[in-house]
């Protein structure tokens, strides 16, 4: 057995949320193209969803080399024809690797990026990460392209559940730049990048699926 398989990481929440997330993605994603996953973490979501979202392609990314090693190990463990090797991408940067055109494993001419998926990142990252994510979505996605966010959010500046308030406090204790974000604030910034809020889906464990579309 390839020793790289030992580098697979596991996120317990993935098995709990992957089916509900897939159900939403199946409804809202464009029918073709490449789905760019920002902050793929362990890689478990991609390896589960890619075969079920064919003929779309899935492109995982993460700035953490250990995460990318885990993603690669999962791909070696469960081969899939429509998932690309992971790339090094930090959402907060002003130019993403997918914009350089120097990705020999990816065929963006035949399978252009039509959607961006971001699961459980913006509350465990500085504000610059979600600001960069929204700006990058505007730069990369075509008109009609979809940006999908999943995680806990405040609505109207208020937590949606006591458990989310406690989670927010624990996050900020770990890092003052982290924390559960206010959905209205994100929506306002998204609108400045021509991303229009389409729908909010209640999800398990007091999380939300939030869908934006590029409108111009």
From TrEMBL:
Q: Which InterPro entries match?
A: DUF938, SAM-dependent_MTases_sf
**One GO MF term attached to the UniProt entry:** methyltransferase activity
Keywords from UniProt, A to Z, are: Methyltransferase, Transferase
Q: Which SUPFAM superfamilies match?
A: S-adenosyl-L-methionine-dependent methyltransferases (SSF53335)
Supply the name of the protein.
SAM-dependent methyltransferase
One Gene Ontology biological process: methylation
Identify the stretch annotated as signal peptide in this record.
none
Q: Which organism is it from?
A: Chamaesiphon polymorphus CCALA 037
